[in-house]
Amino acid sequence: MKKELIELRVNGRSHELAIESCTLLLDALRRDLQLTGSKRGCDDSSCGACTVQVDGIPMLSCTMLAAGCEGQEITTIEGVSQHGSLAAIQKAYGDWGGAQCGFCTPGFIMTVKHLLAVNPEPTDAEIRAALSGNLCRCTGYNQMYEAIKAAIVAEQKGLTSIASTSQETG
Question: Maximum Cα–Cα distance for the chain, whole Å?
Answer without folding.
Answer: 61
